[in-house]
DNA sequence: GCGACAG
DNA sequence: ATCTTGTCGC
């Protein structure tokens, strides 16, 4: 893995204004359209996957382990836990690769770094980014896609933690949050069935990169009362109960980098395995807890 | 001054 | 995020 934008490092010693202007610059570098570098169908279509694997197996030198054929995507889940009494952050990364209709863990790494700043809504990546990058440095594998805990484009300056790290690595990334930071659901998100989604569009709380309303298209025809706000993510119902007395809240999924909002939601649903959190993030969360226990 | 916001 | 037992529902 290579850091394509070391100049976007989440330096926690920056002033708040500097952090925010860096986020605006990151948002301008972010790509919110699909540019995965692999076929996303491989993530949720066992048949397409089996076909691709069969094709690669005909090549004597093809080795799924090192992605020699470039068809088997490696997906990384990233999550942090904290050792607050020690003022340290622990980032854990779990890398998965397709194995039949399941997923197989190919690598798990972690890193512990000192906590420099407190949690400030909108500046999460400056608190947790250092630990994440340190953990990424420990990776032997080179993931094709990263799933982060937190937001991507659903962010005041369209540069949440998934966008920040995704752009730095120039890797496709997705933000998976349990709470909505900003933006408005286009419809009620109550009582959604598993597999359903509701678009989240920008509102006045969301800045550029370009003219947000109309995304810089025709500068006319948009006023504050009737804006053509772009979709920045979606509420995704990854799990739901049948009975009416017990329910699960949706996840708030947004593209981080090199991904559209629709594909980000597709990917998260493809990783739904009976739990609210998609497998990569769920396993990273469990690994973070596991490692954390060893640090005390 | 009030509101308000991931982890 | 973290501090924490039991408890409700599948």
From TrEMBL:
Catalysed conversion reaction: Endonucleolytic cleavage at apurinic or apyrimidinic sites to products with a 5'-phosphate
GO cellular component, one term: cytoplasm
Binding of Mg(2+), residues: 79, 149
Species for this entry: Halovivax asiaticus JCM 14624
Cited function: DNA repair enzyme involved in the repair of deaminated bases. Selectively cleaves double-stranded DNA at the second phosphodiester bond 3' to a deoxyinosine leaving behind the intact lesion on the nicked DNA.
Localization of this protein: Cytoplasm
Cofactor or coenzyme needed: Mg(2+)
Family that this chain belongs to: Belongs to the endonuclease V family.
EC assignment: 3.1.21.7
Main location: cytoplasm
Pfam families: Endonuclease_5
Lineage of the species this protein comes from: Archaea, Methanobacteriati, Methanobacteriota, Stenosarchaea group, Halobacteria
UniProt xrefs under CDD domains: Endonuclease_V
InterPro entries in the cross-refs: Endonuclease-V
Keyword check for Metal-binding: yes
Membrane-spanning ranges: none
Site residues, Interaction with target DNA: 119
Enzyme's top EC category: hydrolase
GO molecular function, one term: deoxyribonuclease V activity
Protein's recorded name: Endonuclease V
Sequence ranges of Polar residues compositional bias: 234-243
Coiled coil: none
Keywords: Cytoplasm, DNA damage, DNA repair, Endonuclease, Hydrolase, Magnesium, Metal-binding, Nuclease
Region (Disordered): 1-20, 51-71, 205-249
Keyword Heme attributed: no
GO biological process: DNA repair
């Amino acid at each position: 893995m290579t850091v394509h934008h070391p100049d976007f490092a989440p330096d926690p010693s920056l002033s708040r204004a500097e952090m925010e202007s860096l986020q605006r610059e990151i948002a301008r570098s972010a790509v919110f359209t699909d540019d995965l570098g692999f076929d996303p169908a491989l993530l949720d279509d066992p048949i397409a996957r089996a076909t691709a694997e069969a094709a690669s197996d005909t090549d004597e030198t093809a080795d799924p382990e090192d992605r020699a054929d470039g068809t088997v995507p490696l997906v990384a889940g990233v999550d942090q836990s904290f050792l607050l009494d020690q003022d340290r952050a622990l980032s854990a990364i779990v890398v998965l690769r397709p194995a039949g209709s399941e997923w197989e863990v190919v690598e798990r790494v972690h890193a512990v770094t000192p906590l420099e700043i407190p949690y400030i809504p909108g500046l999460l990546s400056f608190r947790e980014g250092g630990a994440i990058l340190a953990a990424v440095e420990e990776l032997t594998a080179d993931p094709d896609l990263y799933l982060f805990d937190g937001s991507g484009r659903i962010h005041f300056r369209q540069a949440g933690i998934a966008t920040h790290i995704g752009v730095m690595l120039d890797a496709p990334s997705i933000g998976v949050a349990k709470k909505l930071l900003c933006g408005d659901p286009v419809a009620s998100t109550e009582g959604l069935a598993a597999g359903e989604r509701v678009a989240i569009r920008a509102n006045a709380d969301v800045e550029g990169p370009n003219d947000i309303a109309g995304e810089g298209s025709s500068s006319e025809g948009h006023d504050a009362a009737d804006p053509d706000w772009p979709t920045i993510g979606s509420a995704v119902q990854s799990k739901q109960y049948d009975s009416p007395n017990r329910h699960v809240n949706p996840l708030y999924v947004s593209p981080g980098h090199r991904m559209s909002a629709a594909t980000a939601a597709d990917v998260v649903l493809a990783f739904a395995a009976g739990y609210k959190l998609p497998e990569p993030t769920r396993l990273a969360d469990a690994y973070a807890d596991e490692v954390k226990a060893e640090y005390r």
